[in-house]
């Protein structure tokens, strides 16, 4: 259901479902990825990065997850550069 909501750009609703799912399966790296994708859809790169990093703790050798991490670092860097917020670039 969360993936369905994500595909229909209902990110906040999907986040609630993934968060609830994680309360039952706290080591489900896929749910962290999916919730991170929702945060990315909301342009909340900090929370997306947090979720992708949680997923990485459980699944280090997944190419798709590693691509998501690289992509979110790139997007966050671009957003910080465009806002001229260089002090937060390394946080």
Description:
- By secondary structure, the protein is mainly α.
- The chain is built from 5 helices and no strands.
Report mean pLDDT, rounded to a whole number.
91
Structural class: mainly alpha
User: How many strands?
Assistant: 0
Query: Into which percent range does the helicity of residues fall?
Result: over 70%
SS field, number of helical segments: 5
Strand content: under 5%
- Please write the string of helix (H) and strand (E) elements: HHHHH
Shape: globular
Radius of gyration: 13 Å
State the separation between the terminal residues, measured CA to CA: 34 Å
Low-confidence stretches: none
Note the main sheet. Answer: none
Give the SSE layout.
Layout: H1 2-7, H2 11-24, H3 29-41, H4 45-58, H5 63-82
What's this, in brief?
The protein has about 90 residues and is mostly helical. It has helices at about 1-5, 10-25, 30-40, 45-60, 65-80. Helices cover about 75% and strands about 0% of the residues.
List the keywords.
91 residues; mainly alpha; 5 helices
